[in-house]
Every structure is written in C-alpha cells, then in structure tokens.
Amino acid sequence: MANRTISMTQIKRIIQLKSEGLSKLKISQKLGIHRKTLDDYLFKIEITGKSYQDLLQYSETDLSAIVYNTKNIHQPDGRLDDLQSQFDSYTKQLNKPGVTRRLLWEEYKIAKPDGYGYTQFCEHFARYNKRNKATMHFDHRPGEYLQVDFAGKPLHIVDRETGEIIPCPVLVCVLPFSSYPYIEALSSTRQEQLFCALNRCLESFGGVPRNVLSDNMKQYIQKNEKYAFKFSEMVEQWTLHYNTNLEATRPRKPKDKPTVENNVYIGYLRVYAKLRNEIFFNLFDLNKRIQELTEKHVHMPFQKLPGNRHEQFIMHEQPYLKPLPAEPFIVKHTTKGKVQMNYHVFLGEDNHRYSVPYQYIGQSTKIIYDEVNVEIFIGFKRIAIHKRDYRSGGYTTLREHMPEKHLKHHETLGWDADYFLSMAANIGECSAAVFGKILASKEFVEQTYLSCKGLKRLSEIYGTQRFEAACHRALKGSRVYYGMIKNILEKNLDKQEYLQGELFSIPKHENIRGKESYK
Questions:
Q1: N or C: which end of the chain has fewer CB within 10 A?
Q2: Whole-number Å distance between alpha carbons of 381 and 398
Q3: Neighbours of 502 (CB within 10 A)
C-alpha cells in the first residue's frame, strides 16, 4: 500500500541500501515497500543534503524527526540548489586538460566560503553525473543499419625477410539487430583499403543494409559539424553504387553506435585473445584465421536469449537486406608521373616506384591505380601493369623493362657457388669438374666468381659441345684455370686428337738439348 508509515528499521535499511548503490526498484523489491512510499521517504532524506553514510550515524530520534515530520524541519539551506546550478559548467570544465574535481571545489569554496566540504561536493556531483549519464535502449529493426568502426588496437604480421613487425588496423562491422559481425585486418586505413573491405563485408552478408553508420572518419568526411557532414565524392559514388545511405556519428559520441563499440570489445575477447600467441606472415593467413574465429563466435549461443547470432541473422535479418549490385565498387585513383632515368615512375601516395620499358625514359605518363593494381599509360596505350606494393621507398621492377646491360648486372646479384655448379652440370660432367676445381682454388670462394663468369661466357661464345671438349682436355693437367680453357678454344685444340701426356709435354726441337749434354 502506498504512503503507509514504515518502521525505523526499514528507514535505516533504505539508507543502508542506497549507500551501497542499489536502485529504487531493487530496494522496493527487497524490502517490499511500494515505490511511491519509497520515493516520499527518499525525498525527505535527500533534501537534507547529508550523505547516506552520515545519516546512518544519526540516532533514531534524529532520523524520525526527518522522516516522520510532515513539515520536515530539516529544510534545505539553499546551498544544494546553488551548487547544482553550476554542475553543468563543472562537467564541461572537467574535459579541459589539468582540471580536476579538487580544483573545482577549491574555486567553489573561494566563491562560497560557507559551501559544502570536499566530500559532500564530490557526492552531490557524482549523483548529478549519474542522473545525466543515463543510457537509452535502442530497438533495432532488421536490415536498417550497419555500424562500422576501427578497433583501437591493431593486429600484426611479420615480414619474413626482415623480421619487421607490421601493425594492421582492424575493421569491425556489425548488424545491430542480430549482432552479426564482420571483422577484417587491413594493410592501412586509407580509402582504398576501407571501401574494398566494406565491399567484402557486404558480400559476406549477402546483401546491403539501408544505412551505414560510422565514426567521423577522415577517409570520407570532408566537413565535420555536430549535426551535419559533408562527404567526399568517392563516398557519394560508393553509396550510389550500393544504393545505401552513409551516416556519421556526432564527434566524440561513441554511444551513437553502441553495438559496434560492444562488438569491438567482444572482438578483443573472441579474436585478439586467441591470436596472442600466433604468428602470421601475410594478411591473407591472418584474415583467414580471423574468419575462423568469427565463425565460431557467431555460432555460440546467446547467454540470455534462445539461438545464436548466425541463426538470428539468417532467419530474421538477411531477408530484409537489399540485393547486391552485379559488380563490387572499385576505388580508382589517377595521377601523373614522368619516367625517370632509372625507367621508373613515382607513385607519391605510397612513396613507391614502378618500372616501365626503358625506351620511355623522359616521357610523361598517366598512372591509374586501385587497391590491387597499378596501370601506367601513355595516351591510351598501357605500357606497364604491376601489383600494387605499399612498401614505402621500395621499387617494383620487371626484368623485361630493363636495358640489356642492367639485366646482366641484375643477373650477377644471384651469383653463388651453387648457381655456377648447377649451370655447369647442365653442360656436362667435365664442365662441372672444371668449375668445381676453380671454385675451390681460392681461400674465399667469392674471389673465383669473375673466372666463373668468364668460363660461362666462353660456353656461350663457342657452344656447350666445344666447351665440354675443352674442359675434358684441360682436366688432363694437374691444374685448371680460366686462361687454359680460353687458350684451348682459341687455338682449336679441343678439336685435335692427342696422346696421353701430349698436352703438357715439352715439344721436340733442334735447339733443345737432351740429357746427354749434362754428362
């Protein structure tokens, strides 16, 4: 029954439970007191301006004078109303660097020497903030919105060659009605990567929501105001292509998209935590693993509802999505570049250089690029196409674009003993033996590479058959070197028949004395 008198014990229990932070609904249920009755007593208690802890120290006589006196002799003295009138200003000031509640209280006491002490100041301020931070429950309709956000923490891949740990920003998208997510790690947060990832997100859902809600991302917001935004031309093209509507939250208002904020946290629990001890060397493998973990997540049962996210999405949300267009949206950019003396053009956005045939040195080109490919044109003629490379300061070079001299030099970059032995083995056994002897003739094997290069060139000039025959002849001696092979080939000795020991014996001549001259 409302407005009935309650015992002093219950009064103290009300004060005790409020000091513990329980809501009025919980207190009403726990003590069996009507909400209207509870409100009346709480009003009498709160207008005293005393904290619940202080009131618990009151005697029953003092408390009864407060709660049972209809006139309530403990009328507020005006300090609370005066303080509450300033809370809105205090809240704004707390957002400024270095401003604390202690500083605000000190300034308050200077202006109001008879005002509240620091403890009471903080308690009344906390009550004000609690009332003004109430959250609103949103009832989402199926297919109405897709909420988009970047997770605050990146994932990482490792460069196999350098061991460099490369951070990868993570895009989180969620359909609020079913809480069905899409999570993908990207190479960067730039427009190409963002919109191509959104393309893949919509493809994974099998349809398009009526609206896409996200942060005030610089990738598509050109002008940012509290209640109005100007989107870039590319965004307008993307929304037109998918027949949807892009919306942005107010600046610094994460509660405008609470579902995706919550899914970022769930992503940390269900994805990030599982990956903490795993190493990935490319984005493909990382995203494949993310997809596996996301699939497990959407099939986990709801804690307080029947079914799971996957069932909720398939049965109740996917049918309300609009159909996908026939082709995905392709983000293309155009820029200009002059072919430098090193027959490369410069793509400034990535700080990367791409080769073209060296015959076009000095000419101006048009570069058209998207997330995957870089195409280079002179007029309407495409002279080169490359896979896009995001390595800052790097070069992407095709062999067919290089001058012959550069190509030969490029080939030498792969020289080692295995290379020369493998090449010689393709010629013949004697050639392989000659190369093996020459490679072993120096203390440092690198010192023999020039001789090996000369032998390789002899095999190209005279042909592999003659080169093999020359090596066969040279192996009869105790020592083999480049000049010997060259001499055999230049004097056509590889074509002549010879007897055992003929190659390295002293020829007979009338001017040469024999052993009889030394008796």
A1: C
A2: 18
A3: 12
Q: Which amino acid is at 439?
A: L
Residue type, 140: H
pLDDT mean over 230-236: 69
Tokens coding 169:
């920003």
Residue 256 above 50 pLDDT? no
Encode 384-425 in three state secondary structure. EEEECCCCCCCEECCHHHCCHHHHHHHHHCCCCHHHHHHHHH
What's the token pair of residue 26? 């919980």
Return residue ranges of the chain for CATH 3.30.420.10: 145-320
Closest CA to 281 of 371, 162, 393: 162
Per-residue pLDDT tens digits for 392-450:
888 888 888 887 766 665 555 556 788 888 888 888 999 999 999 988 887 777 678 77
Q: What's 145-320's CATH class?
A: alpha beta
Strands (E), 84-160: 145-150, 155-158
Model confidence over 326-337: pLDDT tens digits?
Answer: 888 877 778 888
**Coil, strand or helix at 191:** helix
Say how far apart CA 134 and CA 388 lie, in whole Å.
49
Three-class SS of 207-252: CECCEEEECCCCCCEEEECCCCEEECHHHHHHHHHHCCEEEECCCC
Q: What is the pLDDT of residue 135?
A: 47
